[in-house]
Design goal:
Elements lengths: L1 H28 L17 E10 L3 E10 L15 E3 L2 E3 L5 E3 L5 E3 H4 L4 E2 L2 E3 L10 E11 L4 E4 L3 E14 L6 E33 L17 E2 L3 E2 L3 E29 L4 E24 L7 E25 L4 E11 L2 E7 L8 E7 L3 E11 L1
Antiparallel strand pairs: 1-11, 1-21, 2-9, 2-10, 2-20, 3-4, 4-8, 5-6, 7-13, 9-12, 11-12, 12-14, 12-15, 15-16, 16-17, 17-18, 18-21, 19-20
């Protein structure tokens, strides 16, 4: 889309340069004898190029979906010593103590004389130490199914390039009709933050300190040996809050064609009206970031993003006031309405978390705004 805008700028510069060259040629001709055109037919411009901007109301969008945040943490089987277990507020891993065997080789204690204890563990919060001498390690799963929320996107300023072919007078009147074809480009932009109540399932494994004092939270074990075979409690269910950040970014290009009617008002002023069909190509990137802060451990963040594109038919209508600067150039300003339909975009994690899916609906059905720019005839 950015390259397209650059091309439009180059077209504008080239057109202005051409007009300047024509003016210089006209100035030079002022010193030449005035030719006699009495036997020639003067050429009336049939084509007109308009280059300008259009500001339209933003698309309407909605955000929603369902998700389970926190899956994917490997706590291992319910029982078993010297396994690598990960939790959202700590780790319990295989013992790394070593001994020297009869041959003088240093070997892991767990492979020679395992005692079920480990020196390789850590935890995040003092509240995980129970009164009866255990360390509680947790995993959390926050499940949400938020209601769909609506968001009107901000107004969008874009560019347009149109070519008009004059077809002559309409039924012998002063009004003229023509055929218009061209395209315009506008942005799609929207974001929203919401907070949802989630159902939170907490899974807890308890590891015995065997009467020892626990090291400070947030530091690796320094000599305190933990029983690496846990007691797994039944899951508990509660509630919590999940912060949702929804973001939509993209652009759409509208190709339009239709008839136009121009009615003279004065020698320089005229009014024009046009209706016709429009074919819209829209592309957008949808991003969702959800954050859950559990009772212990760091914030759990789930983020997913993906893009999509769609082609949609529709229609347009506009009304304009035109001012002729001279026979070859002019200015225009008017109002427009465009209906390009809507499309739905869905993103998910896929196979590893099929219960997570987010949707958005982008509605380009009632776009209203203004347009203005310059016109050049040839």
């Amino acid at each position: 889309m950015k390259n397209l805008r650059r091309i439009l700028c180059v077209l504008v510069v080239a057109t202005l340069w051409s007009l300047r060259a024509q003016d210089e040629e006209s100035s030079a001709d002022d010193y030449s004898p005035i030719p006699d055109f009495s036997d020639e037919i003067l050429y009336t411009p049939k084509f007109e190029v308009t280059i300008g901007f259009r500001g339209v109301s933003g698309a309407k969008s909605s955000f929603g979906g369902r998700a389970i945040i926190g899956r994917g943490v490997d706590t291992g089987p319910a029982t078993g010593a010297n396994l690598n277990r990960r939790y959202q507020d700590g780790h319990v891993q295989a013992d790394t103590r070593t001994i020297v065997d009869a041959n003088g080789n240093t070997v892991l204690l767990q492979s020679v004389s395992p005692d079920g204890l480990t020196n390789n563990w850590d935890y995040d919060d003092e509240s995980q130490i129970t009164s009866d001498g255990y360390v509680a390690m947790h995993t959390y799963e926050a499940s949400i199914n938020p209601a769909t929320v609506q968001k009107d996107q901000p107004s969008s300023l874009g560019v347009e390039l149109l070519v008009t072919r004059d077809m002559g007078k309409l039924f012998g009147t002063r009004a003229r009709w023509s055929v218009i074809g061209g395209f315009s480009v506008n942005d799609i932009s929207g974001k929203m933050d919401t907070e949802e109540t989630a159902s939170v399932v907490t899974n807890t494994d308890y590891f015995s300190l065997n009467g020892q004092s626990a090291p400070a939270a947030g530091t690796a074990s320094t000599g305190a040996l933990l029983d690496s075979n846990p007691f797994r409690a039944d899951p508990t269910t509660g509630t919590g809050l999940v912060n949702n950040h929804w973001k939509l970014k993209g652009a759409y290009m509208a190709f339009r064609v239709g008839p136009s009617l121009t009615i003279p008002i004065t020698e320089r002023l005229s009014a024009s009206f046009s209706v016709g069909g429009v074919l819209t190509y829209a592309g957008s990137n949808y991003t969702v970031v959800q954050t859950f802060l559990p009772q212990t451990g760091d914030a759990i963040v789930d983020a997913v993003s993906d893009g999509a594109s769609n082609i949609m038919p529709g229609f347009y209508a506009d009304a304009n006031i035109n001012f002729n600067i001279n026979e070859r150039s002019g200015l225009y300003m008017g109002a427009l309405y465009q209906n390009s339909g809507s499309y739905r975009q869905t993103i998910s994690h896929g196979g590893d978390n099929p219960d997570t899916e987010y949707t958005t609906k982008v509605d380009l059905g009632s776009l209203q705004g203004v347009r203005a720019g310059m016109s050049f005839k040839f």
